[in-house]
Every structure is written in structure tokens, then in C-alpha cells.
Specification:
GO molecular function: ATP binding; glutaminyl-tRNA synthase (glutamine-hydrolyzing) activity; transferase activity
CATH superfamily: Amidase signature (AS) domain
Family: Belongs to the amidase family. GatA subfamily.
Oligomer: single chain
Number of strands: 11
Subunit structure: Heterotrimer of A, B and C subunits.
Shape: globular
Strand order of the largest sheet: 1-3-2-4-6-5-10-11-9-7-8
GO biological process, one term: translation
Protein name: Glutamyl-tRNA(Gln) amidotransferase subunit A
Length: about 475
């Protein structure tokens, strides 16, 4: 889609301004019902588009991303534009700087349409935990779009953005991609800079992409991957042209691992059948399919929900009502009272839950019993993947155990909500790349996603397999009928 629109821009079939106006009109038409955006930056978007048109008129060469309207998850810092992380405590925060991924996009003359909704501080799997409103799934407005990058996913699938940036900590790009019938790419931890992301879990947070095509995700990765001196966790590795890597995807001899622990009781049968059917197609096309074991993946959720709240309790400590954001100090009796009132009113229920769990897990007398033990099991999960990738090139699993669920159906059951990430969390704990691509629909016409996992820095083989499957199926071409009815 990115290449197609780029070609039309340079052939002057339409201008970047006309394209941007078209997307802004779709936001105006659809977003009252879908609620994907928290902030729409119409004026600056049109200014950015006009600047690209001027370059084209002057005969300047433009890159593939130039003039193409995009949406940005609202936990990624954007200079001069509100960045709230969907939390009351940052409701009026305007960063004086850009995240590195935004700097890189600006250097490529992208057009930013606005900032998208998410679960507060990315704490959730449904976008119901936003302090402002719940985003709805364009395939069925009574259902969630997934989370935490639900606003980004809803914006892309409803045609309100060409692509969107999200973040993935335990599945926050892949799961919404699955629920919305999109491509969702989570790169290797450290491949793309985290500088300017509002931190949730610093050891697993990764910026990534929601797109309609695998090729689009490959180009975005080529544009945004690389060492960043402002982020010490970024990796020093050779730059790669991922578009070139998938130009002629082949499956002959590619070894696909199917972990027996992921095809378990309780997995929705339609999801199971769709993913197994996709694997059979790949096998017929020349892939070698092999059952493998990832025995410690069963502990992934337990480990994640000790490690993540522990890091959350540390990362959210900066939002104290003094230096950042919302403050209730006018009627406070002392400094401690400022903290109580500001954080009590500024943080939502899920943020408070994670702060309390994390503080408890890190507290004296419990650190060894919980956090230290969780990190030891995390090491075992990493070792499981390392051993598996000695036998196979990629691993295929369902992205999520079910399709998009009804809004409100799990709001009083946080454990059930946490289990939505059961297949994506172990990948994040191991720092591995993974992509979710559409592989079918259930009987209610709701999308089903397949997760392809690669070894560390294995984006090339992962994208090859995803692009090949996309090229021989048409799941990615389906669009919500609902959009014609709104």
C-alpha cells in the first residue's frame, strides 16, 4: 500500500495535500463511532503535506514515506503535540522533543494525522483502560480492537491512516493486529530505539508497526531500525533492507516449528483450525514443519505479571504531581498528601493495580520469592527459544487464544484479560521478533491472526515467511463491511 500510494504521488495522480484531506475526512466521518484518535492534528498534517507537494513540484526526489498520512500511538513523544499515554495524570502534557522514531519519520517527510488511543500507559489488552474513552473494533463496534495499541489498529483497518506506530510490551501490537485483521510487527528488542517512548516495562518495550501489508511493515522497519546513542539498549548491527529481503520470498527448505504447548485445551477451535490450516498451506508450498517443545512458556504469564508490575512501579514513580502532569496540591496538607491526591486522582484502576503488585514484589522479604525467581524462569524461557531455533527457522503459533471479545465482558476479571496475551508474552520476555498476520475469519466474520516468531535479529526470515503466505492468500484484502454502513 505504501509503494502504491507513493507511485501515485510521484506520477501526480493526486497530491499529498489531497491524500491527507481524504484521510482527515475519513477520520471526521468514522471516528465518532470508532474513537481511535485522542488528538487529531489536521492543520500541521496539511502543512506537512503541502511541503511534500512543493518538493514534488520542484522535481525533488521523495522517499516512500513522504506525504503518506500516519497515526501515532499516544505514548510516543511528539514535539509540540499532546502525549497523554491515555492517562489523566498526563492529560495536558506536551513534550518539547520527539521520540527517535518520530525524528526518523520527520526526516522522511511523513504526515502525522494525530495520536491514537491506548490502554493507560499501555496497561491492558483491550483499550478499555484508557482514561478518556474505549476504542471500538471496526469489524464489530460492540467488540474491543485489542490493546494496548487498539487505537492504532482501529485507525489503520478503518482506512483512517495508511499505517500506524504502536508499542509492544507483551503483545500490544500483535494482539490488536490479530483482532483487527492487520499485519502487526514487533521487532527484536533493541533493534528500534525506545527513546521518547513513555516507559511501561523497560526490559520488553518495543516500538513497532501496524500495517495492511507485510511489505509496508518491512519498509518501516528498514527506515526506523538502527543504533541510537540516546538509547543504550539499542543494538549495534548492520543496517538491512528488509524490502529487498522479501522481494522474492521462498519457502523451499524453511523449517517451521509448531510448539505443542501453544496448541492447548481452551484455545478457540476456529482459531486452532485457521492457524493449522495456514501451516498446512505453508507445508504444501515447500516448508518443513516440525513439532517442537517450549516447556517453560506455560509460566510466561506468571513471570510477565511479576516482572512487568515491578518495572511499572519504578517507571511510574516519576509521575508524582510535582514534576510531570496532573497535580492536586491546592488543598494538600503536606508533600505526602500531594502524592496521595495527585496519584490517586491521576492514575486509573489498572495502573494502580500494577503499581501495588510491583511494589509488593520488589519489597524487602518478597524480592527473592517473586522478582528474582521470575527472572530465573525468564532465563529458562529464553533458553527454550534458543534451543528451538537450533532446529527450526521460525516458530508459528496463534497470536491470541480467541477473536475480539465484547466490550465490558472482562472488565471485572483482570486475570482473564491477562490471559489474552498468553501466546505473545513469552516472545517479549525473550526479546525476540514476531509478526501477526491475518489467516482467517470465524463464523461471525471476525479476524483471526497467526503469529510467526523469529530468532533474535531474525526479521528477514520472519518477513519472508509472512510475505510468502500473504502472497498466496487473500485474508489481508478483506475489509470491514461496517464501514459502508456508518
Amino acid at each position: 500500500m505504501i509503494r502504491h500510494l507513493h507511485n501515485k504521488l510521484i506520477s501526480k495522480e493526486f497530491s499529498a495535500t489531497e491524500l491527507t484531506k481524504q484521510y482527515l475526512e475519513r477520520i471526521e466521518k468514522f471516528d465518532q463511532k470508532i474513537c481511535a484518535f485522542l488528538t487529531v492534528t489536521a492543520k500541521s498534517a496539511l502543512d506537512q503535506a503541502r511541503a511534500v507537494d512543493e518538493k514534488i513540484a520542484c522535481g525533488e526526489k521523495i522517499g516512500l514515506l513522504a506525504g503518506l498520512p500516519a497515526a501515532i500511538k499516544d505514548n510516543i513523544a511528539t514535539r509540540g503535540v499532546k502525549t497523554t499515554a491515555a492517562s489523566r495524570i498526563l492529560e495536558n502534557y506536551v513534550p518539547p522533543f520527539d521520540a527517535t522514531v518520530i525524528e526518523l519519520l520527520r526526516a522522511r517527510d511523513f504526515v502525522m494525522l494525530g495520536k491514537t488511543n491506548l490502554d493507560e500507559f499501555a496497561h491492558g489488552s483491550s483499550t478499555e483502560n484508557s482514561a478518556f474513552w474505549t476504542t471500538r473494533n471496526p469489524w464489530d463496534l460492540t467488540r474491543v480492537p485489542g490493546g494496548s495499541s487498539g487505537g492504532s489498529a482501529a485507525a489503520v483497518v478503518s482506512g483512517m491512516a495508511v499505517y500506524a506506530l504502536g508499542t509492544d510490551t507483551g503483545g500490544s501490537i500483535r494482539q490488536p493486529a490479530s483482532y483487527c485483521g492487520l499485519v502487526g510487527l514487533k521487532p527484536t528488542y533493541g533493534l528500534c530505539s525506545r527513546y521518547g517512548l513513555i516507559a511501561m516495562t523497560s526490559s520488553t518495550d518495543v516500538p513497532g508497526f501496524l500495517t495492511k501489508r507485510v511489505e509496508d511493515a518491512a519498509y518501516l522497519l528498514s527506515a526506523l531500525a538502527g543504533r541510537d546513542p540516546k538509547d543504550a539498549t539499542t543494538l549495534s548491527c548492520d543496517s538491512r533492507d528488509y524490502l529487498k529481503a522479501i522481494a522474492e520470498p521462498r519457502l523451499n527448505g524453511v523449517r517451521i516449528g509448531i510448539p505443542k504447548e501453544y496448541f492447548i485445551e481452551g484455545l478457540n477451535k476456529e482459531v486452532l483450525n485457521a492457524v493449522k490450516g495456514a501451516v498446512r498451506i505453508l507445508e504444501k508450498e515447500g516448508a518443513i514443519v516440525k513439532e517442537i517443545s517450549l516447556p517453560h512458556s506455560q509460566y510466561g504469564i506468571a513471570v510477565y505479571y511479576i516482572v512487568t508490575p515491578s518495572e511499572v512501579s519504578s517507571n511510574l514513580g516519576r509521575f508524582d504531581g510535582i514534576r510531570y502532569g496532573f497535580s492536586k496540591h491546592s488543598d494538600a496538607e503536606d508533600l505526602i498528601d500531594v502524592y496521595y491526591k495527585s496519584r490517586g486522582a491521576g492514575f486509573g484502576q489498572e495502573a494502580k493495580r500494577r503499581i501495588m503488585i510491583g511494589t509488593y514484589a520488589l519489597s524487602s522479604g518478597y524480592y527473592d520469592a517473586y522478582y528474582k525467581k521470575a527472572q530465573k524462569v525468564r532465563t529458562l524461557i529464553i533458553d527454550n527459544f534458543k534451543r528451538a531455533f537450533r532446529e527450526v527457522d521460525v516458530i508459528i503459533t496463534p497470536t491470541a487464544p480467541d477473536v475480539a471479545f465484547k466490550i465490558g465482558s472482562k472488565e471485572n476479571d483482570p486475570l482473564a484479560m491477562y490471559l489474552e496475551d498468553i501466546f505473545s508474552v513469552p516472545v517479549s520476555l525473550a526479546g525476540l521478533p514476531a509478526i501477526s498476520i491475518p489467516c482467517g475469519f470465524n463464523h461471525e466474520n471476525l479476524p483471526i491472526g497467526m503469529q510467526i516468531i523469529g530468532p533474535q535479529l531474525g526479521e528477514t526470515i520472519l518477513l519472508k515467511v509472512a510475505a510468502y503466505y500473504e502472497g498466496i492468500t487473500d485474508w489481508h484484502t478483506k475489509e470491514p463491511m461496517l464501514l459502508t454502513e456508518l
